[in-house]
Design brief:
Chains A, B: InterPro entries: aa-tRNA-synth_II, aa-tRNA-synth_II/BPL/LPL, Anticodon-bd, Anticodon-bd_dom_sf, His-tRNA-ligase, HisRS-like_core, HisRS/HisZ. Chains A, B: It is found in: Cytoplasm. The structure is a homodimer of 470-residue chains. Chain A is built from 16 helices and 17 strands. Chain A is α+β, with helices and mostly antiparallel strands. Chain A is elongated.
Amino acid sequence: MPANNPKPQSELKTAKGTRDWVGRDLLLRDHIFQTTSDVFKRHGGIPLDTPVLELREVLAGKYGEDSKLIYNVEDQGGELLSLRYDLTVPFARWLAMHSNVKQIKRYQIAKVYRRDQPAISRGRLREFYQCDFDIAGVYDAMIPDAEILRIIVEVFRALKLGIVIKLNHRSILDGLFTVAGVPQEKIRPISSAVDKLDKTPWEEVKKEMVDEKGLAEEVADKIGEYVRRSGGLREMIDILEDQELSANEQVQSGLADMELLAHYLTAMDVIDSVSFDLSLARGLDYYTGLIYEVITTPSGRSNQVGSVAAGGRYDGLVGRYGKQAVPCVGLSFGVDRVFTILDTRQKKNTSDLKSEADVYVMAAGGKGFDGLLAERMEVARQLWDAGIRAEFTAKVKPKMLQQFNAAKEVPVAVILGQDEMEAGQVRLKDARAGDGDKVEKDRGRLVSRESLVEEVLSLLSKIALEEGQD
Amino acid sequence: MPANNPKPQSELKTAKGTRDWVGRDLLLRDHIFQTTSDVFKRHGGIPLDTPVLELREVLAGKYGEDSKLIYNVEDQGGELLSLRYDLTVPFARWLAMHSNVKQIKRYQIAKVYRRDQPAISRGRLREFYQCDFDIAGVYDAMIPDAEILRIIVEVFRALKLGIVIKLNHRSILDGLFTVAGVPQEKIRPISSAVDKLDKTPWEEVKKEMVDEKGLAEEVADKIGEYVRRSGGLREMIDILEDQELSANEQVQSGLADMELLAHYLTAMDVIDSVSFDLSLARGLDYYTGLIYEVITTPSGRSNQVGSVAAGGRYDGLVGRYGKQAVPCVGLSFGVDRVFTILDTRQKKNTSDLKSEADVYVMAAGGKGFDGLLAERMEVARQLWDAGIRAEFTAKVKPKMLQQFNAAKEVPVAVILGQDEMEAGQVRLKDARAGDGDKVEKDRGRLVSRESLVEEVLSLLSKIALEEGQD
């Protein structure tokens, strides 16, 4: 039986930053999973499922400062374990364990764990889902990178969400810092400061560089000239090629990648969805080439939800496990953020916790009516045997009104009467037609038990057709 | 591109008792999930997803001696957390938190965690899946219990696995112990000893009762007379009603339940799949009525894999959270054990890690051929836009033989040539026909770019039809 929208009580609760998923929320979430994995499969993706628990040493040294957010499992004797922090490192661990796998496109949709400050209304949780797609292996330059960006466009098109993909390249960024005069040991900290430009004004970022990180003011200003630039991919390549920057070898090699990419993105019809943004730096240490972050439009650079997908090329990570070096490029969708956006947009007028039954089996009768429970069970069994979703009320003698109300929640009602059952017949009706009173008076048309399954299926397709659900 | 079967290397590994799922294993596992959830939905089940992390106090005191198998998360400041041990207690916690939910059929398919001794070959892991279906709420007696048993039959029928459902009733068992002369405080320990009868001979179980648990020998013998009995449900009810046993009030009430159940199981066509087994006791403390365990036939009482599903009625658990008392009955499928059985049965002759692409886009050409990469991208994009699963080789100038071999992995090949592309045409062929040589010579028939999507879809349905996949 469907229940009403649940209202949680106070003391009993889920762990901080975690939540239960049920009803409409779960359906919407599964719609996102389905849409995403359909696109992943369209591109030849193979599913991989790794454990939530990983050996602590597998995760060690992969997340920089964010390692403090890893959940460790208590030492109860035996191995030291942690909960996975993302899906990228477990994938790299899997690749390193299977040295005969030289090329693979894999996807994974699963929960990850971070002891971060939760903000549920903005879709930031401690237990949350990631949807990852990665292409591992040696291929010709920038072809897999272009396909990953194409996948992003296809997923958000299918979800009917407008997006912009901000692109940058670690080589260009590092070269730019070198040309501007940043000492090698300060490149990562300065990079982290630059990455804040999507939320923080330039003056503050500059202050952090000069006051906190000890950069010369003229160096900071020079950085500022570059990193506040963004625009179309081709336009930005042209601008950068004209600068003194392009004398730097790292910048040169990054620009060559970006030119190839522009060529491929044009062929794949992705070029209009990207923007080249020199302020994009991404926190994680392991990126080595192209990096990207996806924001929804028209939210632009500042929005409540933050990026809805992100990723990049990481050619060194698998090799750090000492087995084989496998270059990779990948992306991760922040499902809970996408969920928050779609949920806000969706009208909240449908009843929650509804079962998906197609048929409600009920009994009707006059004086001395015994409820026909065994008969309702038999008819339900007949429908289940045919794979039809059917329910009945778990009462020996259910009230008539209660049954008619329950029937209104499903497309088709099968009504049993004593005399009709004895004659091998039941009544069949479109349960949602008319209001309660009418429903109660219209007791449907007689069909034989032998033809019931066929008649129900035919009525269900008629109803589906009329509702345009196909 | 598909890779070969992966061979794991030594040092790097997953945590003890956990495993990665990929390729054919994952497809088989998903088939089990899909089959099970189809049946759950057919019975009006609503999905619920709870967190892996639960507050430690939520799990406390629910699992008796097995509590030592719970994984605790390290105290890193903040709440004390554990990993869920099953899906029943989190469901009870959810019910207790939502006091306006009076009746619900919910299902959940998710990983649970137990620090048990793993035995992977027998499907016993530390991280493993459970598939649970529970009916919560006040209904007329034994109707939900009967539907749960019906669900078990439908799931294993769909999986094409022969089973027997062993039934017992906690009231009958407790009454039987009382009549035999077991002191009240020894009922649970004696019950645990009896539960071992599926793996241990009676003489050893008796020894445990008398020597370890201090039961009088004549009491043990009396228990032995009863608990070694099993048979058809109606037959056993008749036997028990004739005994002195039935004077006991608990036994009486249990037998009344079993009689109702026999009636309902007949209506639902489940009666031939059950056996009444007085030695079935079930370890968990929280069961209060009907209990059951499912074994595969012909394995009978002793088998490597153990029970493949189990459950029972637990009317007191939700009330222990002090909010509302909600009677429940439910079942849990041991997916990994079912997987082990089906996997052993399945022929292992298919290539692993195969992508599910339907179309391979390739280029062919003579001297001076430039690989047509952008053109392959454009054609792939055209197919992706139409929702078709398509791949191409991520090389600027792929070798011809390499492409023809890749093409053999998918149903349809689209072959691009320079002149044909300029004329707005491509070649289309059934890629799996003939051997490598023939494939290479037969370059398919010309179709226009405009009609490509339509032609591909029509060829794909022709191939599917011929393979009888529909």
